[in-house]
Amino acid sequence: MKKPFRFPKMPLAVLAGCLLLGGFFVVMSEGKKESPKAYPKTVLLIRHAEEPPDSEMSSHLSEAGKRRAEAIVHLFEKSEARTEPFPKPDFLFAPKPSGKSRRSLETLEPLGKQLNLPIAADREKEDADKLAYAILHDSQYAGKTVLIAWNHSVLPDLARAFQTADVPANWKNSQFDRVWEITFDQSGKAAFRDRAQALMPGDKPK
Question: How would you list the strands of the sheet with 145-150, edge to edge?
Fold first, then answer.
């Protein structure tokens, strides 16, 4: 009769060390894994609303900007002028307010109140790429619509951070009436559209 196989004996200290070492490599390998992407349904990018002349040295919206901010809710309503309304957002983002500008946050405040949504405004405007990464990798945004109001000089880089093509090289300094819409299909492929807000007198209709 064959004797059953037995593992060779080893001191307990050696055995414990091997187990700890094995666990260490498992943790290290898991730490290197990138979080899976969790694609949102739609990302909407807008510039903050109109600003006062530079001579006023104001960090706030102009009166025209305040009127646009109040009107933004109509982007999500169907009408004769807007047969294809934008999807209503589930999340709102703006850069952290500073002494130079609170305009992005002020642009979203009326909408946040009407939709009863908080505005996440804890990132510096230069950290837009990190915001895009978080939205693409956090499952809470999967299948949702995200609206971001940001500084116009950063918006092209922010749009490209969502891995979409056809993004304009810049956002014109005089332009406040556009929405950059990025949609994702089930495989995560992004499609870009430059659409009109058509909210205020003088806005382009298309």
Answer: 119-123, 91-95, 145-150, 42-47, 178-184, 190-196
**Where are the domains positioned within the chain?**
42-196
CB 167 within 8 A of CB 192: yes
Short-list 9, 74, 43, CA closest to 164: 43
Q: H-type helices in 59-143, by residue range?
A: 63-71, 103-115, 128-137
Per-residue pLDDT of the chain (206 residues; tens, 9 = 90+): 555 545 455 555 544 444 444 443 443 444 445 567 889 999 999 999 999 998 788 999 999 999 999 999 999 999 887 899 999 999 999 999 998 899 999 999 999 999 999 999 999 999 989 999 999 999 999 999 999 999 999 999 999 999 999 999 999 999 999 999 999 998 999 999 999 999 999 999 88
- Give the CA distances from residue 29 to residues 15, 21, 32, in Å, rounded to whole numbers and listed in that order: 21, 12, 5
Architecture of domain 42-196: 3-Layer(aba) Sandwich (3.40)
DSSP state of 139: G
Structure tokens at 120: 């996440």
